[in-house]
Amino acid sequence: xxxxxxxxxxxxxxxxxxxxxxxxxxxxxxxxxxxxxxxxxxxxxxxxxxxxxxxxxxxxxxxxxxxxxxxxxxxxxxxxxxxxxxxxxxxxxxxxxxxxxxxxxxxxxxxxxxxxxxxxxxxxxxxxxxxxxxxxxxxxxxxxxxxxxxxxxx
Length: 154
Description:
Layout: H1 10-26, E1 37-38, E2 55-56, E3 59-60, E4 62-63, E5 66-69, E6 72-75, H2 81-101, H3 109-125, H4 128-131, H5 136-144, H6 147-153
Parallel strand pairs: 1-4
Antiparallel strand pairs: 2-3, 5-6
Helix pairs in contact: 2-3, 2-5
């Protein structure tokens, strides 16, 4: 129920939108126009004139400078810095909640690491396949929550 259309130029993207419109009409499906946005990636990170005026099913689509897709924030300049910062913050929040809920003395080291691997690591690594080429991702997420430091604080 989520879809991303990618194209190298304006006519190709409008063509893809037209095909999508025909498909949803044929199969009597609906598109959530409020969530359907246009982003034209560019080095300047600004909304370009060329990104405006795309249509789907007769409606004009909004052009945006940032969009969150499946929990990952994309920016016009292609940077994933905001996405990585948000993942790091979610990891810190999850760690704080876990620290308040458990006592290190009551659990073995194995159990503590298992909790970390089960509850915190998935938060930090969500979307990492997308972020991995970005060299700062591992550094930022590694600093956000270090398992060794995490267990010393409990």
